[in-house]
């Protein structure tokens, strides 16, 4: 893969210049929310993991009562629990979409959080959602949203925040049946089409759900279709700016596709050129900021870490491999000879 190595070297050199400029565009304060039921020692562990000191960030406690404000009536009592453990670290940015890193969250994933945050009305931010030990992460969204509002000084629409929490639970419940990645991909892709097309029509939504689930080789139950349709109808009635959230929705689609491929699934909703576009946009248009400053050792060797940012070199090599394969297939099929002959005929006729 000599071509790939040279390509990456050139791209990384450019990234050093562009990345520096991108970092200067980050705005807003950095805010950390801590689960109120954590011990003082556990809170310090989370600060160590985030790589910050108390006097460097705004610290806010989040309680179970605050989680219940948006989740009660949507999540089950078992999902709600009685204690708040999840923590969040949020850095508003001016571009790059929503990038998420999670640690020790078992029921929700980084891609799931990124997608639901677009429903809440976020557009650009770096987000870390984590806990000192394994938890479901059901209430993680509450801390993230609260941190974002305090960091940016922007109050998000209450209806959209409620819908984001409903989407998180809907996706998580679906994930229990078909797997987290497929559930995230289906909900994210259906939402992408609903917002892109500006529809809240149940017939159109049903068609979108059918098309998307076919892409993932999944058949939903009538109850699952009803829950997803109801959610999407409500999302479709809101006023979303598709252009401001499409990058995040596409990134989630890409990450889900990569995860499924790594697990040996044949599902692939992202084409070759879309992957190349995604890689370039991630390389030059995203400042990962706080996501690259975490101290993984603070949580111990058993911590489960995930992130929406894919490894640059692996993504580049994969895209280059697919382009080379496509080139070779076209060459073997005589496509280039046909193009050459077409141009020769065109020129001879002038």
UniProtKB/TrEMBL annotation:
Pfam families reported for this sequence: DUF1002 (PF06207)
InterPro entries: DUF1002
Keyword Signal attached: yes
UniProt keywords, alphabetically: Signal
Annotated signal sequence range: 1-26
Source taxon at top rank: Bacteria
Protein name stated in the entry: DUF1002 domain-containing protein
Taxonomic source organism: Peptacetobacter hominis
